[in-house]
Amino acid sequence: MGYQYVTEEQMQRLVDFKGAREYHLKKKRDKVDKRMSLSEAIAEYVQDGDIFAETGFSYVRAPLQAYFEMIRQKKKNLVGIGSPMSNCSYLMALGLMKAIHLSYIGVEMRGNDKNFARVIKSKQAEIASIWSHGSMALGFKAAQLGAPFIASKQLLGSDMLKQNPYVKVIDSPVGKDKDPVCLIPALFPDVCVIHVQKADCYGNAIIDGPAINDIALAAACRRVILTAERIVPEMAIRENTSASIPFWYVDAVVDMPYGALPGCCPGYYYWAREWWEWLVRCATPKQESVEDFFNYWVYDTKDQYDFIEKLGGIRFMDHARRLMEAAEANIDDSAVSFAYQEVIPKRD
Amino acid sequence: MSKIEPANPLEMLAYNISLQIENGQIVYVGTGLPMVGAILAAKTHAPKITMVFESGGQDPLEGDMPWSVGCPFTFRKSPMVQEMAPSFGQCALGYVDIAFQGGAQIDMYGNVNTSVIGSYDNLKSILPGSGGGNDIGSLTEKSVLVGLQTPDRFPERVDFITTPGYLDGGDSREKAGLIGGPVAVVTQCGVFDFEPVSKRMRIKGLNPGMTVEIAQACTGFELLVPEGEVPIIAAPSDEILETLRNVVDPRRVFTKMPGS
Questions:
Q1: In B, residues 103-132, which contact A (CB 8 Å cutoff)?
Q2: In this complex, do A158 and B164 lie within 8 Å of one another by their Cβ atoms?
Q3: Which of B77, B125, B176 sits opposite A329 (nearest CB)?
Q4: Shortest CB distance from A109 goes to which of B32, B55, B84?
Q5: Cα-flanking dihedrals φ and ψ of residue B104, to 5°?
Q6: How many beta carbons lie within 10 A of that of residue A346, not counting itself?
Q7: Catalytic residue among B11, B22, B54, B229
Q8: Is B68's CB within 8 Å of A108's CB?
Q9: Buried-most residue among A38, A194, A254, B20 (CB within 10 A)?
């Protein structure tokens, strides 16, 4: 496979076990207050040319406001990875990202994301390797476990193996029968941003609801930024031994209520569902309309509070909070309706 | 004489999906019609199934239809949630009985393509990619494929094997080291299985009004036909249809025919 954008060094860095270990060995150990603003954290810890890992579940507890700040700061030459990685679509269309390690880009049954097809067809960006969710998840998990690779039964027999220079098929040396397995190498992205419900100022963090790959990614990545709905006293975490990310993995902590909007954040708010339908169905078909969309939602906003005003202000926020509370069965089902008007563009 | 509107093709699909599920099973569920089918099964013949989701939610309390597999309704008061790697690991471990997968192309051996039409070097169109499809289809004991059956979407060979079915047929799946495999295909025409030796797709039962000729005309390869009379699947009872319409998908998000 010849590549147009991704360099051999970037390809190797993703699986550089020793390099990641060296990097981690040199990280500061001090338990100090790591709070800073979102713009400072993104400016300092997300660097051009980084292998950038998406976290959460694309639109569930994903650090979307941090991605928007990366757009404002015009980051360049990023290589995207994540399982899933649906936000990489607009990061490619807007020119931040030139290559991806693909698992899945889409918003389930809301239609195909036309950005993705356009940037790949026009060679504005390229696919560096192809994975399933589970095989990539095992790569991150191997990194967290400190294991150079994990042998698995995923990917066998599939054409993804032909488009993935990292995964090797061997006969398992365990047992008597000849039994093919895939060797999935530990994956070490350079940086990720993780949106958590609670963190202390040092970086000990609590994730409520599905953690997806984030506990593994916090361990695997060379640099980790947390955005948190709430900064809590350290004792609030110690009381229940409830952290799933320890402070020494973390480089920066950002006090960031509403940081997962317009996605949902368990315990706090439900999706702005229409936003995603506008994005996929109305904005992605044309490059100009994607740019207009992000001009309106990102360049014309300075932070999450401006963003909330555009979504409908306190009325939107209160409704989103009540939908989440009802979905989690914390208020009565009859208190709120999940009916809404889907955004379906008229065809010419 | 039935008093209510007969099942539309999407409702028939959801009903046939529900019939693949047996009471007591652990079911890996995705969004869309498989979710509708699984909830319908739970509300009718299979009240004791347990649902698991790739985002990590499992055994949620009953609630509204999830907007996504990551929706809070997939982990509503769940006793626990799993990280992604162990969530798929459960399929390999033998703790998941049945899973569902859709695809843009499904071929005669049940291989599924959700990656690319054409090839990555010569793209006709690009699809979202595997997501959890490959994992579920590679690891789960029984997988059920769900698709709209047309000659383009049911070609002799998929353009790209995202999720292996029986690969080239015969014992090729086993030889590749894979476990489990597809047991059924559910489409607007009816339900198909795989002939045990060749592993080629075979008609198992047709929906009311369907014929072998129509099913074949909807297919890009030669369908195997069982010996003797081809079974016709009985239409769902009024009671089941009312459950589907009033309880499972009352806003008709997934079961309303486009344009109706």
A1: 115, 120, 123, 125-132
A2: yes
A3: B77
A4: B32
A5: -70, -30
A6: 4
A7: B54
A8: yes
A9: A194
Phi-psi region of A28 (alpha: psi -120 to 50; beta: other; left: phi over 0): beta
Please state, in angstroms and rounded to a whole number, the distance separating the CA atoms of residues A95 and A104.
19
The mean pLDDT of A69-91, rounded to a whole number, is: 97
Q: Comparing C-alpha atoms, which of A104, A53, A54, A58 is closest to residue A271?
A: A58
Compute how many other C-beta atoms are within 10 angstroms of the C-beta atom of residue A147: 15
**Is the separation of the CB atoms in B10 and B186 below 8 Å?**
no
Chain B's closest residue to A273, CA to CA, is: B67
Provide, as residue numbers in chain A, all residues whose Cβ is less than 8 Å from the Cβ of B179.
Answer: 153
The amino acid present at B41, given as its one-letter code, is A
Tokens of B235: 């239409």
Question: Residue B243, SS3?
Answer: helix
Q: Are B99 and B91 in contact (CB under 8 A)?
A: yes
Q: Does A282 touch chain B (CB under 8 A)?
A: no
CA end-to-end span of chain B: 24
The confidence band for A344, taking pLDDT boundaries of 50, 70 and 90, is confident
**Which tokens hold the place of B232?**
């016709």
Per the annotation, the verdict on B54 as an active-site residue is yes
Confidence of residue A10 (pLDDT cuts 50, 70, 90): very high
Q: At what angle do helices A304-311 and A313-327 cross, to 10 degrees?
A: 90
Residues 81-140 of A with CB under 8 A from B: 83-84, 102-109, 112-113, 116-117, 120-121, 127, 130-135, 137-138, 140
pLDDT at B196: 97
**What spatial distance separates the first Cα and last Cα of chain A, rounded to whole Å?**
41
What type of residue is B115?
A: S
Which residues, 6 or more positions from A238, have their beta carbon under 8 angstroms from its beta carbon?
Answer: none
B-chain residues near A217 (CB < 8 A): none
Domains present along chain B, CATH in parentheses: 9-248 (3.40.1080.10)
Which tokens hold the place of A177? 């029968």
pLDDT range class, residue A348, cuts 50, 70, 90 = low
Indicate yes or no: CB of B130 within 8 angstroms of CB of A156.
no
Give per-residue pLDDT as tens, B94-114: 999 999 999 999 999 999 999
Superfamily of domain A8-255: Glutaconate Coenzyme A-transferase (3.40.1080.10)
pLDDT tens readout for residues B131-180: 999 999 999 999 999 999 999 999 999 999 999 999 999 999 999 999 99
pLDDT above 70: percentage of residues in chain A: 99
Chain B hits for A57, Cβ within 8 Å: 55, 68-70
CB contact under 8 A, A160 and B131: no
In whole angstroms, give the CA distance from residue A315 to residue A103: 36
